[in-house]
Each structure stands twice: as C-alpha cells, then as structure tokens.
Amino acid sequence: MECQGCRDYEQLSRRRFMGSALGAGAGTFLGLLHPEILYAQNKGPGQARNVILLWMGGGQSHLDTWDPKPGTDNGGPFQAIETAAKGIRISEHLPLIARQFKDLSLIRSLTSKEGSHERATYLMHTGYMPIPSFQHATLGSTAWKVLGKINKDLPAYVTIGRQSYPAGHLGAAFAPFQVQNPDRPAENIAYHYSVTDDRFRARLELASVFDAKFRQNHPGDEVIEAYRQHYLAARDMMFSPGVRAFDLAPEPDAVRSAYGLNYFGQGCLLARRLVQAGVRFIEVNMGGWDTHQNNFERVMELSGELDQAVSALVADLKRNELLGKTLLLVVSEFGRTPRITGENGRDHHPRVWSCALAGGGVVGGRVIGASTDDGEGVKDRPVSIPELHATICKALGIDPYTTFRSPDGRPIRIVQNDQVQPVSELFS
Amino acid sequence: MSPPTASIQPQDKSAAPESTNPTAASPIKPAYEAGADGMADQKPDAAAEEKTTAKKQGPVIAPLPLEPPEPPRVPFECFNPIDAFLAQVWIQSGIRPVPLADEALIIRRLYLDLAGRIPSAEEAARFSVDQRIKNNMRGRIQWVPKLVDELLASEGYVNHWAIYWGDLLREQSMVDGIEPFVMRDYIMDALRTNKPYDQWVREMLSAQGMTQEDPAAAFILRNKANPEDLAVSVSQVFMGVQIQCAQCHNHPFEAWTQKDFEGMRDFWSSTRRRLGRIETLEQNGREVQVRYDRVVSGDDGRGVFLTGATSPLGGGADGLADLVTSAKNPYFARVAVNRVWARLMGAGLVEPVDDFSAERAPSHPELLDWLALEFIRSNYDLRSLIRLICTSRSYQLASSGHPVGAFMSEQRFFEKMPLRRMTAEQLHDSILVLSGRFFGGDGPFRPAIEKRYPQGAGSFLATFASHDRETLHARDAEATIPQALELMNGDFLNTALRMHAQNPVRIMVDEKWSPEAILEQMFYLAYCRPPTPTERTAAMAYLQRFRAQPEDAWTDILWAIVNSREFTFIQ
After folding, report:
1. How far is it, in rounded angstroms, from Cα A147 to Cα A156?
2. Which residue among B23, B218, B233, B345 is the one 20 to 30 A from B562 at the CA level?
3. Which of B306, B249, B358 minimizes the C-alpha distance to B31?
4. Number of alpha helices (DSSP H) and beta strands (DSSP E) in chain B
5. In B, residues 278-297, which contact A (CB 8 Å cutoff)?
C-alpha cells in the first residue's frame, strides 16, 4: 500500500503542468514574440556536450540509496557497502554502481523547502518555485535555446517515459520530444507506404498553402504556433538519417539485456543512442519512488533496476568515449523522511537528500556535503536547487546568469540570484 | 515492461492507517504554519483535533443563495441571461467582445460540441442554405435553438457526451467482475433518457447487487468497492474537491485534513465487494469461467460529510447519496454546471474545474450561482443546461478577431471563444465524416464510441490524448510531435482517405462534378468556407501534376486539408 493520493496528485499535477499554457486566458505570453537572449557573460569552456538526467520520480529515499546510515534508529534494514572510491559507502543494493565510483560523485546535501511532488518537480526542473502567472523553462529547453542542436534534424531535448514539460517563456519550439515507450521505435517516423517520396513532399507543400489563411486569421495564437512548430520538427526528423537512433532494434541482445529488460533500462540504452546521434539533453523517467508504504521492499526492487541500468550506461558511455562529454545525473524531487512510519514507509523529505553525478567534467570519487547523523538535515555544505542548476550550466559551458527576455518583456535569468555559485569542487 | 507510473490502485483496506499509532496518524500542522518544511514536521496538533467536531470541517465554500441572482440589466443585446451576466463584467472592465462567429462555423462548432464530429455536407447545407438570409441576430435566435434541439435529441449527443462522462467516471470496457461495456451502456442510457443528474448520481452511489441486476453498480465496482478510492472519486467528480492527499497525511498545501478524508471514506465502511456468480462461457472453443461481483452495502456506515451536513438516511452509502445530491450541498450543482460550461466555453467559471475551494473565486460568481440554481430548478436536466449555454450569444462569439480591452489579462471574460483543438474522438470521427466512412464504417473505421477504452499507447486516439481512465485528470491539450507524425504518416488517416466507394470525392467524380466544384464542396465540409483563389490554384495545379493518378491526387488533397491546422481546431 502506498500513498495513492500523492500519486494521483503527481499525475494530475504533471498533466496540469503540461497543459497550463493552453488554458483560456493563461499563458498568453507564448509565441507572440521570439524570446531573446539579452546578455550572457562568464561563459566558460564547459566540457559537457550532452546531459542525461535520470529522473527518480516520487522522491528517492536518500538513506536507502546514496546516503546510508546503517545501525542508526533511522537507518532501516539495509547495509552499506564499500565503493571503488575509498571511504564512500552506498546501499548494499547498488553493488554494480558501487564499483564505478572512480567515475561517480555524490552530493549528499541537496536541500529545499518544497514537499509537494508537483512543486518540487517544477523547482528541480526549472530552478524556480512555481508561480501561477508564469511558466519557467526547464533546463533541457534552456540548453537547447542557448547551445542549439547538435544534430540539426533531431530535437535537442528528448524525454523518455511519460513526462513532458512545456518550454514556458522560451516557446513551444523548445519543448521536449516525448518518447512514450523506449522499446518501440518512435511511431510513424516514415511516410505511409501508400505514398511516394515525391508525393509526400508535394503533399507538404499543398498543406502549407492550405494552412496560410487560418494562421492569418489567428495571428500570434500560441496553440496554433505550437502545432506548426511540431509539424516542422516532425518533418525534419522524418528526413534525417539520425532518426534511426530512436530504434533500439540494431542493438545486440547482449547490450539490451545488460541494461535490464525493463522500461527504465531500455530508456537508458535509448539515451545512450540519442547522445551518439546528437541529442543534447535527455531525461529518462523512473517512477515509483514515492514509498509511503513498504519503503524497504520497494526501494530494494527499484534499486535492482537502477543499479543495472546506471552501471550499464556508465560503462557503455565510457567504452564509447562519451562519458567525458556527457554529464549524467541521477536526481529526485526530494528525499524521504529518516523516521520510518508505522507502515514501514518514509514520507516526503525536502530538507536534505542526495543526487549522483558522473561525466561531463565531473571528477569521480567525491562526496559533496553531508547530512546529519540522523539523516534529518544538512550537516555540511548545503546545496540548493539553483546551485545544482548553476553546476549543470557550468558543466555545459552555459553562463548561469544568462538573461532571457520573455515575449511579454520580462527578463528571466537561468539562475536568478547572482550570489548562487556552481558546486565547483565537482570539477577539479 | 512496466510503465514508470501506475494508476489509481485500490488500497488494501486492512492496511488503512491505525489511529492508535501516535506518529503515523496524528494530525500534523500544515507546513506553511510549521515552517514550510514539507512532510517532515509531523507534530500532533490538538487544535486540529478540535476543529473536526465543529459544525464545518475544512474550507467549505459558501452555500448557494436561496433565490437565483437577478440577471443584470445591461445595454447589450442578450440572447439569454448568461449574456447579461457576462456583459456586465465586460462593460465594467471596458471590454467589447468579438462579433458572432459565421453561421457556418457555428454549425460546425455545434456539431462538434454536441455530436462529436463535423457535419456531413448534407447536414450542413440543410441549415446553412435555408437560413442564410436570417444570419443576423434575430435570425440566429431562431435557427440556433432548432439545431441545438435536434442535435441534443440525436444519438450523436449520447455518443459524444458518453465519452466525456466516461472520462470522469473512469469507465473502462473490461473490468474484472463487471460485464464488459456495461458501464458505458449505463452512461449512454442515462444520457439518452436525459436522466436527472441528481438521480443518476444517487443511483450510482446507492447501487446494490451485480451489474446484471443494477448497472449503476458499475460505478462502485469500478472503484473495487474500495472506501479510499470511492472517497477520492466521489469528492472530486461530484463535488470538485480534492481530498486525496489527505488520505495518508495532512497535505501541507491543501486545506483538507486527514479527518476530512476519513469522514468521506467511512461512508463506505460497510460496503463490500462480494462474489456475485460464476458463469462458464465458451470462448474460442474453450470453457472460460467469468466472475461477476456484487455490491453489498450495510447501513451502519460511520461517514462524516465534508460540509458537516447529516442525512436522515445515516452514515452509509444511502446517506452519502442523499448528502452529495442535496440541493443544499454547495458543491454539487455548481460543480456540474461549471464542468459543462468549461466543456463548451473552453474554460470554467472556476478553474481548475475539479478544484473548488473557498479561496478560488469564480470569474463570475453570480452567473455560476444562477446556472446552478437554474439547473436545480430544471430538475437537474443536463440537456436544458447545454441548451442554455449553446443558445447564448456568448457561446456563439467568434474565435478570431480582437476583443477590445481584454489584452493580456489573466482574468476570464469569455469575450471571445478560445480556439480548441478537437479531442481525439472528435478528430477521429471528423476524419471519418470527411472521408465518407462515418456512417456504416467498420473495422478500424468504427466511430470512437464503439471502441474499447482505454485505448492502447500508439493508437490514434491515445496519441491525441484520449483519456487513460485510470486516474482523475484533465486531458492533455499540448501539441506533440507524435501527433504531427500520426496525422502525416499514420495508417488510420492515410487509409481512411483513399478513394473507396463512399468517399464523397469519389462519388462526385463519378457524378461528373468539375474538379473546382469538388474542391469547393470538400472545403465547405472540412472548413466551412470556400477555397481562396490561391488554394484553388494550388489544388488544381496538384491535380494537373499528378494527372496520371487522379485518385491518389485527390487523396493527397484531402490529406493536405486534414494536415492544415484549420481542420483540427474548433473555431
């Protein structure tokens, strides 16, 4: 049994989050004008070209994964094991990842004040607290906007799983391409068998003639503009050789099973293919971490999937010499309460939690910050979500204080407060 | 492979929180009081305990007024009182709404909103040709109600709105323990007979037995007779109140407490799902055993209603049915009229439609109350409610043009009809109408209402965000690349548009219509307007270019018509 309510809430919210720009009267800032970059300085030579963000949706229990406290009141039944990096210990249920700690580092002192799934997810993706009147862009859209595409025919931002995020003030053109099921090649990516290449192109031309009047009658309508952008992107994709990247079929069985024959494992494999094909920012969703009940049983199960997929991904990226250029993050919207509930569960806990990082210039074998001995709070070096954003920006060589102008003229910075600094210890 | 997110699953009743555990279930202080630290600060709060014994719990909205608000007198030509309420705010805010939409677009809008598809050429012509001269305000007051009545009396209304109510009631075609499709049939029957809405809801909440005896039992069985699921569904669907987060813990950002949740849950404490009977059926030459469940409700429920009201029928399912559908329940009628309003007007008077709270003010509070009281007065007549909205001048406003004064406002004025993308089903069925397959279509070309729900990922309907019917949520309206790919390359559209015998183009070609006339007819059918000279020239050039394959060329022209945004949107 688990917090069904929260799950419903999470799903519902996510949908609202997605649809929020479309309600009547809301989000009229989209698509009216093109957003502009006002100024950017401090642009450093980032090492990372790509980002793979593994999303631990629901709130990953930090004490039962990256920050174990065995033997304490809150520690739970799991043991801690040594990793390849001396002195760093993680959960016994992540043995394969433990062996890769020469390449992985941890932040054990993430902290925020957001205990609701919806709002914390928004915060982690945008770096901002949600406000009703404005839709901030997520980091994936920002990276696309600032750095552009690597492969001009593929979207620069892909989400794998069911999550999707509007591009907010950056406009629909920078919204992620959503792959629902990694195990199936993206649908309808070639023209129908009843058509020839010649006719397909002629059809497109004719459709754009028929489309002109409607667009003229509804100038600046963001919904129509979003559709137009998606048509253009879809057409570009169709004719791109890179589109083969979406199909896992060419991967040998051994590789596929190494990642784990499950949704998340295959999503990680697809992420690696997309990095190779030149997609800049990929998010893979792994839900199920909202363990209000039966935390230990469920975290053990989830850890098995996570361990196999992440270890396979790190090894694969390394083998293909992509790890240096790819920043890999394993993050969640918040941690879980150290106190174990009557139902053997843990509740939402944003006061401290952990994330794992690798590649893209991140030095392995480091632990940034620490939680208190009872796992309740930050003991050392708190890291805020905007600081994590600044860190990802640093890895990518994006100035975190870059200012955009939204279509309604409002200046928006990637990281609002210029006192916020990246976690530099990760890089040197 | 398992999907990363799961559905509303029933809770194991035996594992419901035990209030004897002081740390697990004691009321907690909302985080915005306690220091905004999320769920971590669980402290017992004696004050919260006391509150629950007071006459109302949580932030209940204001009661409905005893008399309907008087429609204001406004210097504005109104078709019915809805317009007066809206016009008052327009005038106060210095807004001038856009003009009425073209007659042909109103016919299209009404067909899509009430029958879930575009009209066929004959259907559209019947109204537009005779009535063209009357397309002034006075004329419209006459012909729009006629068309509305005709559509509301049609099976199209039943089909289309059954999908809407199916989303809300999470109707699925195949559910263990329930006869296949019985819930959809029940919904369609309620719409066809125009069952008073309060009676419909009462039937569902107080149902007993198997669906064979009482199809209304499908609602409780769909929720597995699980008290937690039923508490969440009933509160959200019929009362627009979301208490689900209070199920496990007092949510820091919502005002309802765990006690409120438990109160709504306990109406179901004596409701059980029991084995009804087992039937042995033959399927594909094999014998299969099918189990049918039945609902058993005792009358010793211990429910406490959200508003604090009590029923002479007690604290069980019957008492809940009574309390929910009471005219004194401040939520029931308001939530229903607001849902129907939002469906037809593009946004609710209260938004989101299933999140009513004392803090969330309606855009037009008097209009909401007037509609709610009118709905009650009409004996909860859903058809009358829809008729009232659709025959208002406000419903008939254009979706283009510039209203004066409303620029960039967050407030909802309803001064212009927002463009709405067709739902998955509207698009599906409209493609069938355009290609001549709607009437008598079979196989993959059956109308949406005949399909099994939920539709699998990757199907046409699912790609355009048909509802999963698992959790309660609004449909996604966001444009996606897979939708563009589906309309360009998907098998459904590309096959539907081929020149089969019923395709209107094929029929017109056989009847020796000129290409220009065929094009004009198809433009009217798809867009309710003639082609522009540029469009005509481009289409004729296309036919010329591919003259060796005229049938393919016409299929391509239809493809281009559907793949223009104008087809996909309800103007």
Report:
1. 9
2. B345
3. B249
4. 27, 5
5. none
AA letter at B195: K
With beta carbons less than 8 A apart as the criterion, state whether B294 and B209 touch.
Answer: yes
The token pair at B453 is 């729900």
pLDDT of residue B481: 80
Q: Which residues of chain A have pLDDT under 70?
A: 1-45, 131-134, 162, 164, 172, 185-187, 407-409
Nearest Cβ partner of A207 from B17, B246, B560? B560
The tokens describing A254, both together, are 């051994």
How is residue A285 written in tokens?
A: 């969703």
**Which amino acid belongs to residue A147?**
L
B526, B567 contact by CB (below 8 A): yes
ipTM for the assembly: 0.84
**If you ran DSSP here, which 8-state letter would residue A178 be given?**
E
Please enumerate in sequence order all residues whose Cβ is within 8 A of that of A175, keeping only pairs 6 or more positions apart, or say none.
A141, A157, A164, A165, A166, A167, A226, B478
CA pair distance A210, B523, nearest whole angstrom: 10
CB A98 within 8 A of CB A364: no
Contacts with B247 from chain A: Cβ below 8 Å: 3-5
Residue A169 confidence (pLDDT): 81
Contacts of A334 in chain B (CB under 8 A): 38
- Nearest CB to B37; choose among A113, A184, A226: A113
pLDDT in tens, B29-78: 332 233 333 333 333 343 443 333 344 445 799 999 999 999 999 999 99
Q: What is the pTM of this model?
A: 0.71
A347-400 confidence digits (pLDDT tens): 999 999 999 999 999 999 999 999 999 999 999 999 999 999 999 999 999 999
Q: Which amino acid is at B88?
A: Q
Nearest to B8 among A4, A184, A199 (CB): A4
In Å, how far are A75, A77, A327, A336, B246 from A88, measured between CA atoms?
A: 16, 19, 21, 21, 39
Phi, psi torsion values for A198, nearest 5 degrees: -55, -50
Residue A183 half-sphere exposure toward CB, CA atoms < 13 A: 14
Please report the residues numbered 58 through 77 in chain A whose beta carbons come closer than 8 angstroms to any beta carbon of chain B: none
Task: Give the residue-averaged pLDDT of B9-15.
Answer: 36
Taking CB atoms and an 8 Å cutoff, what residues of chain A touch B5? 7, 10-11, 57, 162, 285, 287-288
| Interface test with chain A among B20, B89, B235, B248, by most A beta carbons within 10 Å | B248
